[in-house]
Request: fold
Amino acid sequence: MQFYHDYPAQASNLPCFVAARRKRYESGDDVSKMTSLFAPQVLSYENSPLLLADKARVVREDGTVDSVEYGLHSFLELTGAAYKVMDADELRLAVQRLWWKPGEQVHITNGSPQIFREAGQWGLGTEHEPPTEWREVSNHVVFAFSDPNNWGVENVDFTVGGADPQDFYQTDAWGGFDPKNDQGRSYQEMSESYRESCEREIRNLIGNAVPKNFSWNDLLRFVPEGEQIIGKLSATVHDFLEQSCTVAESLLFTTPLLHWR
Reply:
């Protein structure tokens, strides 16, 4: 690839260029993996694949358009295989830019951040020209942001489309976690803080109840202080709790089985 930099005139006459396929975002990955690539490939100018620029364009409710640093890879299930140009004469290529027009805002109570929207539409345009064809995002979860954070999910400037808020804070919200810190703080310290911030947002959403995908520790929070659980949940009670009942209802039905002393 150094050839393209050292001999640009000669490189411009080559029949091929170098690009790397973009990896899809895997739910739960942190920001360090949000822009991952496969190994570079040598490709033909005559049969170039879909080439996408790094930053997506997000159309805001007031009509303004922002370029965002992260989130493009959450759209790759919709675009299909897409590549990042590594070394090429870009005048010979049509590099496109992904645009996203989020849908209506999903209003959340209990003081939670108003970051959730209907999935909306997406399309392929250029830096300054919007798509000529918009497509429905449909039942995919997509999101975009520019500022990740070491410590708290509330500090990430997320725009989220098509997500269940509880599910988002348990999984995809980790895309905004930055594991690198200039002050030398440990990964364990930062990740625990970020995890606790996601849990706070879930509690804000559900109030005095257990989450949908609850754990044993979620239930232990509600055991009276000084008491000890000596029994186990039956499958029937577990199924009942998965219906996101309130803790008060949970304890009413589980007191005979969640024996504490």
About this structure: The mean pLDDT is 84.
